[in-house]
Amino acid sequence: MKRDIKAKLKGFLTRLQASSFKKGKAWKGFSVYEPVYKVEKEVGFPRVVLEAGGELRLSSYEECFEYMRFVKYKESANV
Fold this sequence. Notes:
Blueprint: H1 3-16, E1 20-23, E2 31-36, E3 49-52, E4 55-58, H2 61-77
Antiparallel strand pairs: 1-2, 2-3, 3-4
């Protein structure tokens, strides 16, 4: 992971109450970073951080659910 991307991701840790991020599957031209929690989190909608061209942003609720369907489809296709 590029150092500048890693530094920008740190800004999202507090906002998402996450301990770190793991690299997700590339989706719709975005690099995806999934939050990792030390304690299981059950409140609120799941969110991911999307990166394209060095710019990071938090996914919308719609994008998050689309991404979850995409990942589930990709995993079931590999079975």
